[in-house]
Amino acid sequence: MDELSMDDLRAVLLRATNEAGKIISQYFNGAFKIDHKEGINNLVTEVDKLSEDKIIEVIRAVFPSHTIISEEVGEMIQPSDYQWIIDPIDGTVNFAHSIPICCVSIGLLHNNVLVLGAVYNPIMNELFFAEKGKGATLNGMPISVSTKKDFRTACLVTGFPYKWPDNTEHPIKVFERIILEGLPVRRLGSAAIDLCWVACGRFDGFWEYNLNAWDVAAGYLILQEAGGRITDFDGAVYNVFERETLATNGLIHDQMLAVIKNKKG
Q1: Fold of 151-260
Q2: Cα gap 62→78, rounded to integer Å
Q3: Which of 63, 100, 157, 195 has the smallest C-beta neighbourhood within 10 Å, fewest atoms?
């Protein structure tokens, strides 16, 4: 990929992110239609769809042949080396209840490698961005993960799925083990923001079950470029289509794996 192409890709990513952010800001605290997906509390609003339509419009205007994977429209697959992975509003329940922890999240895969990612919370005016090999930023300023080494003093964040996984330990049991350690654990309601807040050192670690690619793609790259580590719950190499996500500053990662797997000695 030449530099000019990356410039074009970056420009489109940031334009799409900004335009979607304007829509989120416009409707935040306002009136809009709310529908339900599978599960009574798994919400989708008309604003999700407006945001998604705008993002796809911006991408398609410049790169009409690229594949798009987005939360509401699903997969728009084309024979392309590029895949845009989009969450038009991550934290829809927060948005629907006027809680200002919500964002637009867009990641770009090139030949199955994440090369660009942006997570934008327009309500808090925070734009996290990363380009592979060039570090991560918050509003243009470099960010890095925390330097905490002792899991016992970590500040963590998690989330719970709408549907419990069938083939792994119940998430409440893992949560119980961690809070019984006396650790502070927060639940923000947006996996993309959770990952970014680990990336900038506000949290030391994050774990969650049953996330989708659009929840994690951009945040995954931002975390990696900020010096963090992300794996599944066995410590194996992660990709955005995994269903188990453990993301940390890297220094407490093995300690968190041990607690999650109930092997802490």
Answers
A1: D-Maltodextrin-Binding Protein; domain 2 (3.40.190)
A2: 15
A3: 100
* Other beta carbons less than 10 A from residue 123's beta carbon: 20
**Domain chopping of the chain, boundaries:** 3-142, 151-260
Ramachandran angles phi, psi of 203, nearest 5°: -115, 160
Alpha carbons 136 and 139: distance in angstroms, whole number: 10
CA distance 200 to 131: 15
Chain centroid to CA 193: 6
User: Is there a contact between 256 and 155 (Cβ–Cβ < 8 Å)?
Assistant: no
137-168 residue pLDDT tens: 999 999 999 999 999 999 999 998 776 656 56
How many angstroms separate the CA atoms of 119 and 24, rounded? 13
Rounded distance, CA 128 to CA 117, Å? Answer: 8
The pTM assigned to this predicted structure is: 0.92
Sheet holding 113-121, edge to edge: 74-76, 67-70, 82-90, 103-110, 113-121, 126-131, 136-138, 141-142
Q: Taking the domain 3-142, which CATH number applies?
A: 3.30.540.10
Backbone angles phi, psi at 249, to 5 degrees: -75, 0
Eight-class DSSP state of 76: E
Q: How far apart are CA 71 and CA 55, in angstroms?
A: 12
Specify the amino acid at residue 121. N
